[in-house]
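JOB MANIFEST
job_type = single_chain_structure
chain_count = 1
residues = 105
[input]
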Amino acid sequence: MDDDQTDAEAIGEDARLSRLNERLDAARQREQGRKPAPDREKSDANYRLGNRVLAELIGGLVGGAFIGWVIDQFAGTRPWGLLVMLFVGIGVAFRNIIRISSGRS
């Protein structure tokens, strides 16, 4: 038996595990060199775009519901003003989201 295997057995480690860990470390280093670094600016731009889409959707729903509620309070058409304006708000929100996705801010 050679000394490396005896030392590893004395410590309680298996020499095969330490060689496997060395090979895994080498593979990780090769993989890190192969993968490009993440593009931080593109990630931030996508995050901002997602937030804008979410804001449009929530804003359309809340805005339409609020305007419909106000119409119902003054016209006494409860719940039709709220329902109609809620659907109008959803339509406006989807139209804005489509405009954002097609590149026409």
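[summary]
The mean pLDDT is 87.
DSSP finds four helices and no strands in the chain.
exit_status = 0
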